[in-house]
Amino acid sequence: MTNRSTTGTAGKFTAVIAGLGLIGAAVAGCTSVDTDSEGSTLERLQQEGTVTVGFAGEAPYSFMQDGELTGATVALHREIFKNLGIDNVEGVATDFGALIPGLQAGRFDVVSAGMSILPQRCEQALFSEPEFNYTTALMVPQGNPEQLADMQSIAESGVRMAVMTGAIEADYASALGIDAMQVASPQDGMDAVVNGRADVFALTGISLNWMKQNNEGAPVDVTESFVAEIDGVPQVGAGGTVFRKEDTELRDAYNEELAKITSDPQKYLSIVGEFGFTEAEMPDPGLTTEMLCEGVS
């Protein structure tokens, strides 16, 4: 959760994102969905008219703002599920690292977090076809005193790094032998940099730029986005919606509607453009979920 003990100057800069996280937590509760009813999950959702999504409060993908669930993945879900006869999208706030376990436990029907499609995750759940292409960026103290630019520069400098638990950047850090601090949310990562507990916070470029833009007075900078390299191999990444292993019918129906959006740049940007996404984030049609699940990038 958000660090509410922050005071003075640093506390002022956490207000915007902290507010989003606290509002999001209010909808979490002890919820569950009916996974034991007769018929398929798709049929149940169509009958109920509501799909419940798990989200981690990572703007601009899925987060709460002014008491409303919003974000690029939420906008995609509203469009796609409406076309499947499911008019309402409700959210359950969950730490990022608990999203797949929560899905498996029946706390929600799908995960709405733009989650990176990785082989180890594909062993636990089904993924839609890619919805976004990803690059990484670094949030650093204003002026970037350590002159950090990519994951290798962090490893070589020995600075204190923060990553979000369960995020792809945590895997990058581990592969490079970086002993990174784990945080539960983007807000916690920003707090760590502002308060001097970390020298750098790594996350997707689109998320860090959103945070910077919505905290204009914060004493932080965001580096240029980059494609991380591990052992000389570019880690080209993409994210999608997550489903339970048994929900192939729901996943396939979702993919059919998704393809109508990702194949049309104008349609795609009409849905996610207001959240800062551009054609650069559109999924590469040559990079499929099957390939990503096999570890091909």
UniProtKB/TrEMBL annotation:
Q: Which domain of life is it from?
A: Bacteria
UniProt feature coiled coil, ranges: none
- Signal sequence annotation: 1-28
Q: Which InterPro entries match?
A: Ectoine_EhuB (IPR014337), Solute-binding_3/MltF_N (IPR001638)
**Which terms in the Gene Ontology molecular function aspect does this entry carry?**
ectoine binding
What UniProt keywords are attached to this protein's entry? Signal
Q: Which residues cross the membrane?
A: none
Specify the Solute-binding protein family 3/N-terminal domain's residue ranges. Answer: 50-272
Q: Which BP terms does GO give this entry?
A: ectoine transmembrane transport
- UniProt cross-references to NCBIfam families, sorted A to Z: ectoine_ehuB
State the protein's name: Polar amino acid transport system substrate-binding protein
Q: What is the species of this protein?
A: Rhodococcus rhodochrous J45
